[in-house]
Amino acid sequence: MTNGWTDIKNTDLVFVMGGNPAENHPCGFKWAIEAKKTRNAKIVVVDPRFTRTAAVADLFAQLRAGTDIAFLNGIIRYALEKKRYHEDYVKLHTNAPYVIGEKYHFTDGLFSGFDQGKGEYDKSAWQYEADPNTKAYLVDETLQNPRCVFQLLKRHVSRYTPEMVEQICGTPKDQFLKVAEAVTSTGTADRVGTILYALGWTQHSTGVQIIRTAAMLQLLLGNVGRPGGGVNALRGHSNIQGATDMGGTFEILPGYLKTPTGAVQTLADYLEKGPPTTLNKQAWASMNYWQNYPKFMVSLLKAYYGKTATKENDYNYALMPKVDGNYSWMYLFDDMYRGSSTRAGGKEPGPEGLISFGMNPVGTGPNSPKMVAALSKLKWLVMAENFENETATFWKAPKEYGGAAPNDIQTTVYQLPAGNFAEKDGTFTNSSRWMQWKWKAIDPPGQAKSDQEILARIFLAVRDLYKKEGGALPEAVLSVDWSYTNPYAPDLAEVLKEISGKALDDIKDPKDPTKIIKKKGEQLDGFGQLQDDGTTLCGNWLHSGVYSSAGNLAARRNNADPMGLGMFHEWAFAWPANRRVMYNRASADKDGKPGDPTQGRLSAGSVRRLHHAPRGRGAALLARAQRRPIPRALRGDRGARRQRAAPEGDLEPRVEEVLDRQGQVRRP
Question: Global pTM?
Fold first, then answer.
């Protein structure tokens, strides 16, 4: 989520596509209902099915499954044609005024630079145009240049007329126009809308493109970086967000850094190909924080390899595992099923073993008989689980699955009893990006152990084997830093400190080298203090600052909300930098004046300071930032209802009056 669950209450319009939050995220969806009650927000649902979310919507439209991009592009076209977009926001906070080079074009369904043989694009044809005089980016503040991003987008979506949307999506023209009008009603400074989506978008083969299209729509409407706005993914489990943040999928490292491929042999090559570069690789001012990629990566390598990672050996980049193909779990099961893997170097034998933590592929996979058949071809299977599930007992699958007889299956299965969520501490990261520390309630029963102890004991045993027997590239294992106080069961607070980052040498102030901002051994305050010279370590730059010199911020439980916006800056820690609304500079104009002064009456600077305010300072900062006092009943809610105390015998307070957006009293 760019915003968060509690922030949904600040919206004027909830646009739901690709999800069914009323049924699948009921605790979070209450904030949409809150917005409906207190702000008269509208709920718009577009879905192939009439869901429980649609049942409480103000407007519902159906579309054919898989046609979401056409529908969204139709809304973008409507916004552009009807001038229902936030023009000042678009000019200031997006790349719409930037001019693209003449090599870029879109013809017959393909962008320029497509290589038919490789089946991929050469994106060098999509570069920005340089100003002939300054050689900097060529920008047209009027948005009239035919090659500026704004005009290219307008031309690209021109085909998505209401009639074309009806033809592609099956949505009647009149219904589509009602949705388009409602959604684009938020393209002004005094209104804001949010988009909620879930697996109905992400699990499509074009999921990334759908979400990008939604982001473009929200940027046009000026709904990114503002309370009540955003493009918000609804996570389905308590720590799905945390798993991906820490590199839970094969193609990313912690902090969404790219996993190296075999073709990228040196750290210099990796840093050349990884982060985006400015025009002509000149040192133009850039708001893109990925320009700090070298600091993130070097600090991660120092966390991995400790003292053995030096500038002279490329910080042990060569020892990092490199990917040479697709290692997502369903691809792995395909390889197990076939008995072979196709990698960059050609065909090779398939996996011989599998270690599974907290997963049940036979029970949750798309083809259970195939999963059983694949597992039957392994030499060994390790299951770390709370109980024996279908995967651990795959060899006893029903005959209807068509698998081999149990006597013919040679796979050795090891069941490792693991502690459940209440039997270990650590953090959960929810959809709002809040890292919340949880405390262990009881110890795991019997021989069951925590996940970190299971992993630690496996790692230490493997390392001992490499020490005694050697093997192929033993330094890849022997160089890993494992200097925890208890190496057999690392304390997770100690691990969180490593993830957050610390100084390995004195860190000097870049503005005044005579000043030391962090002494050697101190915890860092945030990713702004990371270095690319090996003097800092950090297990995940996004989480940097979660365990600072102030302590474990994920364990904070102060529910103070001085702005009344549901931000709760002193409850846990939100990445990055405890920001509850990402890209929040976009909530203000070029002078720092908020686009919607009724939402907290904070300037851009005050918002930034409040994110990092020590306990008790938030209210003081708010008071200084406010232009005038806000009545308690209205604080933070433009459409909040003023309520009087309930007379004796009433179950709920009665609504006396409602204030409109200009603060004028109107009778309900």
Answer: 0.86
